[in-house]
Amino acid sequence: MTHDPIPGGPGDMDEEALKRFLKETFGDALPEGALDGLDLSALAGQANLPQDPAQLRAAAAQMQHMFAAQGDNPVNWDMAEDIARRTAAGTAIPGAPEPTGSPGDPGPTNDQVEELRQAAQVARLWLEPVIAVDVPSTELGVFGRGTWLHRTLPHWKTIVEPVAKYMAGAIGEAISSQMGELSGLDQDAMGMAGDPAAMMERIGGTMFGVQFGHAIGSLAREVSGTTDLSLPLGRDGEPALVAANVEDLISAHSLDPGAARIFLAAREIAHTALFSAAPWLGRALFSAIEDYARGITLDLDALDEMVRGLDLSDPQALQARRPEEMFVFTRRAAQERALEELATTLALIESWVDHVTTQALEGKLPELEAMREVLRRRRAAGGPAEQMLAGTVGIELRPRRVREALAWWDSVLATEGEEGREAKWEHPDLLPTAEVLTGRPQAPRTTTEDPDDALADVEIPTDFDAELERLLRGAESDESDDGDEDGRSEDSGPGDR
């Protein structure tokens, strides 16, 4: 939002109009006398607030509406969902990248529903003989982009709530600090003036909601189904595909339409079968993501720099911010390990699905290898929406070492058969770790944070036995030297002195 400054610049701003703006915006959160002694003109200039009283009133009404919708939540979910819906529908949002994929959010046609459900029937017939878990018999759901969003949002909220709460507070603290510097008050004085940090946290929650909504709405325009990220985001036991996105994928890569529909349906059904057969798996994935998110940290220096030019009265300006401009994440060693474990589990899921669908479809579908390669490349690079999501919540949902995991599943099938392969999903301890897949030992874990980080850099000698023997010989030699000192041995008693 661009505002022409009134003559005289910020110093000539109508402070009474600005006081009304702040009181109307923050309501009961701003007690009587909280603004006394503040340099409101400097504060308004820092926040890029409009100087015209009519524009201030309009901005106050808009901000008050946003905060009322937010309630006590760390994120303004109403705004996030509204932006997600508009993005999924292909509505151009000022300042945001152009929507990807085919225009709008067309509902599935009768022909598309029939074609995809027939493809799912064929996929089930071909999967049943090669996997030793129940293939879901639930009819394939055929969704529009908005329906995919509606069905998956509850899971996304659970995933991002911990990181959202932290980030809203961090953003609010950065904004509060900036305003405190301008007003000349220290943080204690600002706390006495009605806890500005709490007020600014609401703005932080709004900022996060805007970015998150755009990321999830963009994802709704890219994914083929509810399990593309190897997470169970849909309803239990219900496979589903997004008709418009399936057609976009076929068109973008010139794939055989009939073969591609069977291929994508088979992957969705295989994912659903796995999550139904191993109920612990979905819970473990979401728990791992939540644990990782609770320890997320932002580069606060970068955040302080970002908020200096922030227009607090203009939600559209917030929407125009890219996640990489707003959120710079830092990770501790423990978080890197948690991310490694999550990526390994995702790789085992992705490779198992690739393994069983290839086994089921090989020799039956044209262009099978070409379709597998398309998904491998998408998985390696990640789509624009997936990259935006990683930039917003700091979690890279990228499977690592998929090739190694695929080779492991091949070896299990060769030695233990289909029953043995599927039995690996009965308990997490039966699955290979990153060390097993790579053949390289990882840094040891300890129960405390800092020593653990230090041990990560310790190198164990290649010939450990030889090194141990050398150390022991050195110790024996030292003991011998100590015993000969002053002509006495360790066995010498007091009477020998």
UniProtKB/TrEMBL annotation:
Residues 449-466, 477-488 have a biased composition (Acidic residues). One of its GO terms (molecular function) is hydrolase activity. Residues 418-429, 467-476 have a biased composition (Basic and acidic residues). Keywords: Hydrolase. The keyword Cell wall biogenesis/degradation does not apply. It comes from the Bacteria. Residues 91-111, 417-497 are annotated as: Disordered. It holds the Pfam family Zincin_2. This is Hydrolase.
